[in-house]
Amino acid sequence: MLTATSPVIVHKRVVAAAAIELADCHPRTSGLGAVEDYVRAVAEFLGCRFDVRTMHGVGGRAGPSDHPDGLAVDFMVDPDTGDDLASCALDNIEDLAVKYVIWEQRINHGDEWEPMEDRGGITVNHFDHVHISFESDAPEDVSIEDLCS
Ligand SMILES: [Zn+2]
To answer: ARB-07466-like C-terminal domain: which residues (predicted)?
Structure first.
C-alpha cells in the first residue's frame, strides 16, 4: 500500500544507490597524467558516470592545446556515449569548471555547437573522443556526485 511518504523514500534510495555505484567505480586514470586536481575529479566522475575506459590528459598535441597545461581531457567514447557525456558537461558547465567541449567536429563554449574545420581524420576531428577543456580556476565547492544521473 502506498503512503504519502513513499515517493520520497524511493527517491532517496535511488540517489543512495547511484552514489554507492559511483563510489565503487575506479576508472582507469593512468592516462590523465599530472592534470589539475579538480580536473582529475571531474574526469573520474565523468569516467564513472559514462563508463569511459580510456582517458587522456596531459600530453603533447599538434597545434595549440590545453593538454600540456593539465587543463584538458580526452574521453574515448562511442557516438551515443559521446552525445551523453558532452551534454552532461555542457549542462553543468559551471559546476564542472568546463571551458568548452569539442565533439564530432564541433565546439561548444556553453551556448551552441559551432562547426570546426576539417582537420582530416577521425581523431583530429573528434569523432572518437570528446575533448573537454577546463577553466584554470577550480570550481566552487560543489557536490558533483549526483549530476547527470
Ligand atoms: Zn583533447
So the answer is: 34-127
Look at residue 108 and tell me if it is in a domain: yes
In a domain, 55, yes or no: yes
Ligand 1 centroid vs 4 CA: distance in angstroms? 49
**What is the span of the domain harbouring residue 79?**
27-134
Structural domain count of the chain: 1
Distance 67 CA to ligand 1 centre (A): 6
**From ligand 1's centre to the CA of 71, what distance in Å?**
10
Q: Specify if 143 maps to a domain.
A: no
**Each residue's pLDDT tens digit, 105-142:** 999 999 999 999 999 999 999 999 999 999 998 887 77
Q: Is the pTM of this model over 0.85?
A: no
> Rounded CA gap, 140 and 97, in Å?
9
- Could you tell me if residue 22 is inside a domain? no
